[in-house]
Amino acid sequence: MDIKYILPFLDGLKNILEQFGMVGIERSGLYKKDYMAVDKDVTAIIGIVGELRGNVAYSMSQDTAKNIVSSMMMGMPVEELDEVARSGIGELSNMVTGNASILLSENDVNVDITPPSIVFGSDIYFIISSVDTITVDLKTPAGEVEVNIGLEI
Amino acid sequence: MDSLYKPFIESTANIIGQMTGLHIDLSDQVCEEGQEISSLGVTSIVTFAGVRRGRFLIDMVPELAIKITNNITGVEYKDVREYDVLTSIAELNNIIAGDAITVLNDELKLSLRLAPPIVLCGKEPIISIPKLSSVTIHGSSDHGDLKINIAFEKEG
Amino acid sequence: MKIMTVDDSAIVRKIIRSAVEVLDYEVVEAKDAKEALDILEDEYEDIALILLDWNMPGMDGFEMLELIKKDKHLRHIPVMMVTSETGGENIIKAIQTGATHYLVKPFTIEELTKRILECLGRG
């Protein structure tokens, strides 16, 4: 999988988190899965169609999600992932999608990104793609975010 | 707007019938949905883009997901988390959505293309779709309830 | 006087509420254009400013802006469009239709406060 297809999704998240003051984001791991299974409790998924086809999933624990929403609300404490907090992750997903989409077109990748869906719950188990998946762990001040990229190329 | 929903509604009942022999009763009522959908247990989502962007979601109780898989594969599965059960529901959704967008592309020239289906199960998942209005159609079968949800972005 | 926020996202309404309350204005929240128009029908005389999200399900913010600017009771109320899109065309379209200001998400509280004060002529 060409890095030019992956970077926009990592940088998209990084750019938006930085705008909310979460700086110093690092890649802490990169590995390959046979298919994209995810078992974290909060996952935002966007689809890709065009010269590529696939899904990108941003997954995190409930604690990471709460910390991110707290940063979005200028540090207001977030006790639970209620409707307000969930809408925060929704806003964030929209912004990341928009940003990634701009970065892809700047890299001359001709794709459309579909609207994000965000899943909240506990004991969640996903199969997001049955194709080879690249997983990148991002260490952020809010906690770990796992970025799963499954593309049919 | 009805012309956008109708192909999905028709394909759902037809394709589940053809592939599994199960009869699905879908309500005539098309309900406006809020931004959050509570899952019945197993959910598959297919998103698409073209002239319009959107999402098709099919959601069902675990019993029905298992029954559908057993009928498609001829194998007796018990646990909804098995790979074959989840991927069967994803594939079913892919076929329904593919059938529906073929109709939409022919009739309305929407040039829609599908992203691969995703599927999930869990304890009371909530699926949120920011910024999109959607409709839900409830349904039932002898093996439990299901619902479908269809969302389209506005034109332009 | 009151400031109205029209946004489908609960978190954006909450952020706007916290900024507006510091300025000693009361906040009226609406989650979509329909709810906002219902509230305006009764309370338009008390509304000093409308912060209007562009991208909402149902009627979008731009369509609502057009309605506001055509209504003889509402058209004097300043409207600030809030959007996540950075496209210049939309800004021009909104200003031409009668929006007073334009705010791009994500914004800081300082930016939001400054824009609100500008809209209210206190900048």
Description:
The complex is a heterotrimer of chains A (153), B (156) and C (123). Chain A is an alpha+beta fold and 153 residues long. Chain A contains three helices and eight strands. In chain A, strands 1, 2, 3, 4, 5, 6, 7 and 8 form an eight-stranded antiparallel sheet that branches. In chain A, β7 and β8 (143-152) form a beta hairpin. In chain A, α2 (62-72) packs across α3 (83-106). The longest helix of chain A is centred in the middle third of the chain and has 24 residues, at 83-106. Chain B has 156 residues and is α+β, with helices and mostly antiparallel strands. Chain B has a single domain (6-20, 32-152), classed as 3-Layer(aba) Sandwich (Chemotaxis protein chec), CATH 3.40.1550.10. Chain B is 37% helix and 34% strand. Chain B is globular. The mean pLDDT of chain B is 94. Chain C has 123 residues and is an alpha/beta fold. Chain C has a single domain, classed as Response regulator (Rossmann fold), CATH 3.40.50. Helix content of chain C is 45%, strand content 21%. Chain C has helices spanning 10-22, 33-43, 61-70, 88-97, 109-119; strands spanning 2-6, 26-30, 47-53, 79-83, 101-104. Chain C has a five-stranded parallel sheet with strand order 2-1-3-4-5, with helices on both faces. The radius of gyration of chain C is 13 Å and the shape is globular. The mean pLDDT of chain C is 92. Chain A binds chain C through residues 16, 19-20, 69, 72-74, 76, 83-85, 87-88, 90-91, 94-95, 98, and chain C through 8-12, 14-15, 18, 84-85, 105-106, 109.
Please sum up the structure shown.
With 156 residues, chain B is of the alpha+beta class.
Topology of this structure?
The complex is a heterotrimer of chains A (153), B (156) and C (123).
Chain A lengths: L2 H17 L6 E8 L2 E3 L3 E9 L2 E8 L1 H11 L10 H24 L4 E3 L3 E13 L3 E8 L2 E10 L1
Helix pairs in contact in A: 1-3, 2-3
Chain B lengths: L1 H19 L4 E2 L4 E3 L2 E3 L3 E8 L4 E7 L1 H12 L9 H26 L4 E2 L3 E11 L5 E8 L2 E9 L4
Antiparallel strand pairs in B: 1-8, 2-8, 3-7, 4-5, 4-6, 4-7, 5-9, 8-9
Helix pairs in contact in B: 1-3, 2-3
Chain C lengths: L1 E5 L3 H13 L3 E5 L2 H11 L3 E7 L7 H10 L8 E5 L4 H10 L3 E4 L4 H11 L4
